[in-house]
Specification:
It is a single chain. With 359 residues, the chain is mainly alpha-helical. The protein is built from 16 helices and 5 strands. Strands 1-2-3 form a 3-stranded parallel beta sheet. Helix 4 links the parallel strand 2 and strand 3. The N terminus is likely disordered. Bound molecules: iron/sulfur cluster.
Length: 359
């Protein structure tokens, strides 16, 4: 029996009970993704690989943030369920292990919405509007009338993180501004009511920002991303049409790897001697961009091969994704309920004297 087959036979609820004692001793991580499509290489180097590495050291919660889809895809809710499944498959394929980590859907935890309401009163409008990432996203979205929910989504993200009282948040560089906002909210709550929340730290991936193949920010909607689920042929086509050093016309021209997209991918996915060799050959005009890209196709396809295989394996296991999510939702809710009990009590929102203990 292979390791994956053994994994599939695991009784997740039973395992959760067994793991409880161990979990209580560990610090927590919370991070996640919006279900707007499959995950790409930027997600991998920005956050996913850190999540996989830290699974043993921390108790991990990974939220699939469906409320956040509404910020700029309000009329495209039909496919959210399908994208949730894709993201869970991506998680499992890169090595996130549901035996160790909790994967859950944001809207299935009503306590997060309640926490968002409280937190939205603890931060000023000016502060929310100053968030540089939100400003950039609003500009890129080209939405004519931006909703209140769009500007305020980092507050909902703070509620995700603090609902499980997380200590660490592995994120891409663009999310650091949001974590700073979360830290401010945690401090404000602790100062005003009771010291319930850890002040979480952001953990940025080893490659702060991997550009898309057109040099712009890598994004599902811009069509410039390589997805973890892409076929080898799709990877080849995407890389071969990527933008490189614009000043380079002939293969013998001296190149500038520091301004080349493909070179950024060598740094992220190649080994150090290979990077050095490409850098020297490019600068001295000894390698053409076509050959350089062909080598990159091999590297990326080599990296994605086991991920594709694992993804296919899980995609064929009927009911497994559902089990992972049901178990994850239950576990995340259990923790969020504990947090909300503490929060309501600290804020005098439990009304025990008025309504009795259980109402
Ligand atoms: S040779 Fe490679 S590193 Fe140099 S510009 Fe072309 S693609 Fe970029």
């Amino acid at each position: 029996m292979t390791k994956d087959e053994r994994t599939l036979k695991i009784n997740l609820p039973l395992l959760n009970t067994r793991m409880k004692g161990k979990r209580d001793m560990k610090k927590r991580i919370l991070t996640g993704d919006r279900p707007t499509g499959p995950l790409h290489l930027g997600h991998y180097v920005g956050s996913l690989e850190n999540r996989v590495m830290l699974q043993d050291k921390y108790e991990c919660f990974f939220v699939i943030a469906d409320y956040q889809v509404l910020t700029d895809h309000l009329k495209e809710t039909k496919r959210i369920g399908e994208f949730i499944k894709e993201i869970v498959l991506d998680y499992l394929a890169v090595g996130i292990n549901p035996e160790k980590s909790t994967i859950f859907i944001q809207s299935k935890i009503p306590e997060i919405a309640e926490l968002t309401t409280y937190f939205s009163m603890m931060i000023s409008l000016a502060r929310v509007q100053r968030n540089p990432t939100v400003k950039e996203e609003i500009k890129a979205s080209e939405i004519s009338e931006v909703s209140y929910g769009f500007v305020g989504y980092p507050i909902s993200q703070a509620a995700d993180i603090l609902s499980v009282r997380a200590h660490l948040v592995p994120v891409g560089e663009d999310q650091v501004a949001h974590i700073e906002q979360t830290r401010e909210i945690a401090r404000t709550f602790n100062r005003l009511f009771a010291s319930i929340f850890p002040v979480p730290e952001a953990l940025v991936g080893r490659v702060a920002r991997l550009p898309g193949l057109d040099s712009q920010k890598m994004s599902k909607s811009r069509g410039n991303a390589i997805f973890l689920s892409d076929s080898s042929e799709s990877v080849r086509k995407k890389i071969m049409r990527a933008i490189t050093d614009p000043a380079r016309i002939h293969p013998t021209d001296k190149g500038h790897p520091d301004v080349c997209n493909i070179f950024r991918y060598y740094v992220a996915f190649g080994n150090p001697p290979e990077c050095e060799e490409i850098e020297t050959s490019c600068k001295s005009g000894k390698i053409g961009c076509v050959n350089c890209k062909k080598r990159m196709v091999e590297i990326i396809n080599g990296f994605l091969k086991p991920i594709r295989e694992k993804r296919n394996h899980y995609a064929n296991q009927s009911g497994f994704i559902k089990d992972v999510l049901i178990t994850g939702n239950r576990r995340a809710r259990e923790e969020a309920k504990k947090t909300l009990e503490l929060v309501r009590e600290a804020m005098h929102f439990d009304y025990k004297d008025l309504l009795g203990k259980d109402n």
